[in-house]
Write a structure and sequence with these properties.
Strand content: 5-15%
Radius of gyration: 21 Å
CATH topology of the largest domain: inorganic pyrophosphatase (n-terminal core)
CATH architecture of the largest domain: Alpha-Beta Complex
Oligomer: single chain
Largest sheet: 5 strands, parallel
Distance between the termini: 37 Å
Number of domains: 2
Strand order of the largest sheet: 2-1-3-4-5
Order of helices and strands: HHHHEHEHEHEEHHH
Helix content: 40-55%
Length: 245
């Protein structure tokens, strides 16, 4: 049997025992739960209640994200022209759920869409030049990445050379020089104004899905919850709201 190599350490914080007991009594929670809330910096009844009950006000306008309008316009154009759209995902839980969210959303608005999950051994992570060439040769007219893309300079340059646009949706660390994609949808883009920076890849995909559909697709939130939790992003702010809905 495998033995754990990590030991949990309870954060030691100077607590006002009287305040803790008063909060526990008002809220009807155990002392342990109230202590955990206080350790998170939630010091009042109102802050704890707010933290426990995220609502639609925690969900931000997807068009605040950089290039969201360009991404939506290009996908709509592809649908109107009958172009085959390929969602290019990733092989982990975040990547697979991101792929599912975008494929379903595009199908909902009448798009012809397929998907490609890279093989981690032969394709590696992110846009792969040979994979892009095969997809384009097979008829793909637009590539939409999810949970990857911001480091895919070579593959995206090849797609551009072949006359195919690439829309990137990603959440990973942004390199100093970004690829020449048609649109880059990313919550931390330096030219963007999105209020919440810590979305998982599936969170970014969900924001694009919301923008495409014109409403929040609640039926896709189970996929968002799986990808968000699996990718170990913070369960704060909009992430918390998406997971708890």
């Amino acid at each position: 049997m495998l033995k754990a190599h990590t030991k949990w350490k309870v954060k030691e914080t100077l607590m006002d025992k009287e305040h803790e007991e008063e909060l526990s009594r008002k809220l009807g929670f155990t002392s342990l739960f109230t202590t955990l809330c206080l350790q998170r910096g939630l010091g009042t009844e109102e802050e704890i209640q707010h933290f426990l009950k995220p609502d639609e006000t925690w969900i931000h306008d997807p068009f605040l994200m950089h290039d969201m309008d360009k991404a939506v316009s290009r996908i709509m154009e592809a649908i109107e022209k009958g172009e085959l759209i390929t969602v290019y995902g990733d092989y982990d839980a975040d990547g697979v759920t991101s792929t599912s969210v975008l494929k379903e959303a595009i199908e909902m608005i009448g798009g012809e869409v397929n998907f490609y999950i890279p093989n981690r051994f032969s394709d590696g992570y992110g846009p792969n030049t040979q994979a892009f060439e095969k997809l384009i040769e097979a008829g793909t007219g637009l590539i939409v990445t999810c949970d990857n893309g911001v480091s895919g300079h070579e593959a995206i340059a090849k797609a551009n050379e072949l006359g195919i646009d690439v829309v990137i949706t990603d959440h990973h660390e942004l390199p100093a020089i970004l690829p020449a994609a048609y649109a880059i949808v990313h919550p931390r883009h330096p030219n963007g104004h999105y209020p919440f920076k810590d979305l998982a890849g599936v969170g970014v995909a969900f924001k694009l899905a919301t923008a495409l559909l014109g409403e929040v697709p609640l039926e896709l939130l189970d996929l968002v919850a799986v990808g968000t939790v699996a990718d170990l992003v913070s369960l704060l702010g909009e992430n918390r709201a998406l997971v708890m809905q």
